């Protein structure tokens, strides 16, 4: 089995198939309302059938197909302007921490979210966050923008894009987000997968993305050790991204200070999501991925 295919195991795919019908992909306007983007002119185009599920609109059943097969199926139509789901991957060295590593969990979740989009005949694109200084007078935060993939046939390419990402060096998430917004020709669904352990003004950049019309999803991937630290004694801590070292004594007071600071970061992300009608899910590396995806599809704020 190739490395890219291990991102989506068969049991996981079966769970995703059950969830994809509940996936709501939309772009948001800059105002209080929201809309699904539509192409000017033209009409809806038949895409495929899917099995009927309880709660579906009976008016969409293809009765001719039902007469032939005896199985109720629904007609699905391609939206007049399909949405682009942008999967923004934090590829900083800090994502290499954890057991399993945060980076591996982030890639598997991105594969799941991409599958949900592609299986719904939408487009999905992997964007990799890297810090590359300045270009043409602008701060550059994107290391790679992969080709947008479309439909189920694009899944292999998307998994390949994800499988080649490795965590290394520093990444400024706010710069990455500004770069994504600047390069986006139109808004779409913006899924940011990161640990958000960033000193930059992340929520300000998220607000600019929201103002540009993007439907924002925050997926904070953290390890159990970061959430529930169990350290005591003297340590030489080395920053995974910069290599800077600092000597610390981890006593009860130091642990409490860390926990409070981490809780403040989480609350900042939660508050931003609630204020802007966004989704925020926290994925701990040792929890079942299916649970994270369910909360993602439900657009919850953890």
CATH superfamily of the largest domain: von Willebrand factor, type A domain
Number of helices: 9
Ranges where pLDDT stays below 50 over 5 or more residues in a row are: 28-43
Number of domains: 2
Main sheet overview: 7 strands, mixed
Beta-strand content bin: 15-25%
CATH architecture of the largest domain: 3-Layer(aba) Sandwich
Overall 3D form: elongated
What is the C-level CATH assignment of the largest domain? Answer: Alpha Beta
How far apart are the termini? 34 Å
Please tell me about this protein's structure.
The structure is a single chain. This protein has 2 domains: 5-27 and 83-297, 3-Layer(aba) Sandwich (Rossmann fold), CATH 3.40.50.410; 46-81, no CATH class. The model is unreliable at 28-43 (pLDDT under 50). Helix content is 34%, strand content 24%. Strands 5, 6, 9, 10, 11, 12 and 15 form a 7-stranded mixed beta sheet that branches. The chain is built from 9 helices and 15 strands. The chain is elongated and about 75 Å long.
